[in-house]
Amino acid sequence: MIDDKSKKTNNDFYFTDSSRIKPLIMDKSKANVCSSQCHPADKGPDGVHTDCLGFFSMDSNVPGLSNVILANLNLKDQMEYRSALEGTKYGKDFGIHSHREMFQKIEDTFKFCAECKKLPQDLIDPAALRRCKRCQNVYYCSVSCQKVNWPTHKAFCKKLQLAAIDRLVEWLVFTGVLPFTTCAWTRQPHELTGWGDWLSMQENLEYELDKVLKSDPMRILWSNAGKPRPEDPDLKESVKRVTSEFLSRPLTIGFGLKTFGFNPLKQPLTIHVVGASHTETLNARVTDMDELARMFSGNQGLEVVMVGPEVVKGDISRPPLKALGPKGKVYLSAHKEFYHIFWESMVETREAARPDLVVGFHPGFHASQGLAEGWLPTLLLLRDYRIPSLFTFYNDLELKYSLQILAELECHIITSGANPWCSLKPEQVQSCPNKLPVYCNGYYIAFLGAVEESQEGEDVEEEEEQLSHWPL
Ligand SMILES: [Zn+2]
Ligand SMILES: [Zn+2]
């Protein structure tokens, strides 16, 4: 693990580049959260890449903002942005020279008047754009715009203050300082109700948090961020929130295993993460899913395979396991491929193990017709092969639409609702900050097979028996 982290920190600018791309990545997957008008008419050249949704959503809220982002990244268009995400442009043309410049460029992508949406270039005096002193997050072109906006902004100012700290602290994930070292679970997964319980298991929590606060990257961060360093207690809370977002993925997988009654202590298990994208695979480390092994200490071996057309090449690009993996550990790999094609070429030929569970983080198949079409073969495959499946969503509206889509496909919904391992980090929609923030993996749906077959008696009993092993 140490090797892996030190390897990451050697190449500083690799990280600086990726973290500069991050802000837009976070916006794109929530294209539809922003407002109902944001639904894109153009689903992009191939209907599967989600970044075009982000650009569309962004420009419909703040005209010209996507160009500001591309300019800050030294990219000429959306195609170059895509190739940067795919790793083909790293280290070449970003032209960044210092941490200060990097943080400045990130901040520049947030600079527009929250009231009239004007960008600095649209103002007679670009320097007139002033930041809200409370949240250090949103900007105004004038006192009058700020006054008009305050009744709306005051409901979000506090949360936006946290979001502004978190998006800087998040850089520590790229440097390898986060997530901090965590303990093997001393309690059974079903005994934990959420992050409060998880934190109470971390015996060395204060020591680990202090270590993060005193780390070199944390010092570099605040001497270059162009914002005052928050007080230690606030910074510690931010570290916890950013860590919760990182660990939300392995723990949601664990929650999925639990929901479907699997016991990793009794059998080795394979989990496929479908629709994996930059969010899960950009700069991913082979240790990224280790919390899952700590959750089920004494497990018979867990394998997590990330599959999706937007998977980014990196350390975890390696073949899936054909046979059983090492006991007590998680073996992580990634494949840039549509899931139904991966299934045909790898699962059916036994080059990859058949999954016990399939998980999709924020599939967004409700967001546009193009994406739904991209997801259709995968959803039908999961339904027809009766693969236990769990998908997550940012908010209850996404949950509702996705339930409708799955109902139309006659998928048998086992359960749905709020995810106990929802990220604690508030996420603002970059182009419309005065909106209720969303949280990664906030909600989930678990489904198994099709409605008809499960209503034919026998299957139901079998399922219920399987599910009764764990409290839901
Ligand atoms: Zn204004
Ligand atoms: Zn504010």
UniProtKB/TrEMBL annotation:
Residues 113-157 form the MYND-type domain. Keywords: Metal-binding, Zinc, Zinc-finger. Pfam families: MSS51_C, zf-MYND. Coiled coil: none annotated. GO terms for molecular function: zinc ion binding. The keyword Repressor does not apply. This is MSS51 mitochondrial translational activator.
